[in-house]
């Protein structure tokens, strides 16, 4: 059976992106850096989570951030207040970061700093619950966020994001008393998509679950998830 032109083009784009992601990861490995790709829909809490994480860990761990946004540096400016290098990437009309964009961020980081001095790079992806999960950027693990306000059905409606995640944060738990949402059902739906993903309910406002999140991040520095997604397209 012949593929349509659009399907073949999509596969070729993903193959090319994967080659770039593997190359980015080689740089991170050479420098001894763990890279975590943070993904979610808009407004799920990626930036405030990073603010709390930088506030807690940046004094113990050398961290840099590659910040993806479509048109502004608003989130990048928020994170720069924590005195860590933040490389801003504007994607224009693109709904996700790809490996080529992140390669540009890596080169800027290497030009302005000694990359071997860093332990951890966070990539904050563009807010989108679909495309970021399809395009690897060179990360060692994927972190997905799902706001409790987004509903119980999102893992079933947008399965790829949850299938690809190594860690899932259910965010804004402080809103749970005001919502008719069953946390156990969310977790059950996630488990249907990904039985082994680490799930951590958190609230950046109250601090619920953040210590568990910080511990997970710290564990990746010595024993990264070695995500099973590596080169999945190239090998198939």
TrEMBL record:
<comment type="similarity">
    <text>Belongs to the SIMIBI class G3E GTPase family. HypB/HupM subfamily.</text>
</comment>
<dbReference type="GO" id="GO:0008270">
    <property type="term" value="F:zinc ion binding"/>
</dbReference>
<keyword id="KW-0547">Nucleotide-binding</keyword>
<dbReference type="GO" id="GO:0003924">
    <property type="term" value="F:GTPase activity"/>
</dbReference>
<dbReference type="InterPro" id="IPR004392">
    <property type="entry name" value="Hyd_mat_HypB"/>
</dbReference>
<dbReference type="InterPro" id="IPR003495">
    <property type="entry name" value="CobW/HypB/UreG_nucleotide-bd"/>
</dbReference>
<dbReference type="GO" id="GO:0005525">
    <property type="term" value="F:GTP binding"/>
</dbReference>
<dbReference type="InterPro" id="IPR027417">
    <property type="entry name" value="P-loop_NTPase"/>
</dbReference>
<feature type="domain" description="CobW/HypB/UreG nucleotide-binding">
    <location>
        <begin position="37"/>
        <end position="200"/>
    </location>
</feature>
<keyword id="KW-0378">Hydrolase</keyword>
<keyword id="KW-0479">Metal-binding</keyword>
<keyword id="KW-0342">GTP-binding</keyword>
<dbReference type="GO" id="GO:0016151">
    <property type="term" value="F:nickel cation binding"/>
</dbReference>
<keyword id="KW-0533">Nickel</keyword>
<keyword id="KW-0862">Zinc</keyword>
<protein>
    <submittedName>
        <fullName>Hydrogenase accessory protein HypB</fullName>
    </submittedName>
</protein>
<dbReference type="Pfam" id="PF02492">
    <property type="entry name" value="cobW"/>
</dbReference>
<dbReference type="GO" id="GO:0051604">
    <property type="term" value="P:protein maturation"/>
</dbReference>
């Amino acid at each position: 059976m012949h593929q349509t032109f659009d399907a073949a083009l999509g596969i070729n784009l993903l193959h090319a992106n994967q080659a770039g992601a593997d190359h980015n990861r080689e740089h991170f490995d050479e420098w001894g850096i763990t890279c975590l790709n943070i993904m979610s829909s808009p407004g799920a809490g990626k930036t405030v989570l990073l603010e709390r994480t930088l506030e807690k860990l940046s004094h113990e761990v050398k961290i840099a951030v590659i910040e993806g946004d479509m048109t502004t540096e608003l989130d990048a400016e928020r994170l720069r207040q924590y005195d860590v290098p933040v490389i801003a990437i504007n994607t224009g009309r693109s709904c996700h970061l790809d490996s080529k964009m992140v390669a540009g961020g890596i080169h800027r980081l290497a030009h302005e700093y000694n990359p071997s001095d860093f332990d951890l790079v966070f990539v904050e992806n563009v807010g989108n619950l679909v495309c970021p999960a399809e395009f690897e950027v060179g990360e060692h693990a994927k972190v997905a966020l799902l706001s409790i306000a987004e509903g119980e059905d999102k893992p079933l409606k947008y399965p790829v994001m949850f299938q690809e995640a190594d860690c899932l944060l259910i965010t804004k738990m402080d809103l749970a008393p005001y919502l008719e949402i069953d946390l156990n059902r969310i977790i059950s739906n996630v488990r249907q998509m990904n039985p082994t993903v680490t799930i951590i309910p958190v609230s950046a406002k109250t601090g619920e679950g953040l210590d568990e999140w910080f511990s997970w991040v710290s564990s990746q520095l010595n024993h990264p998830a070695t995500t099973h997604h590596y080169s999945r397209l190239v090998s198939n």
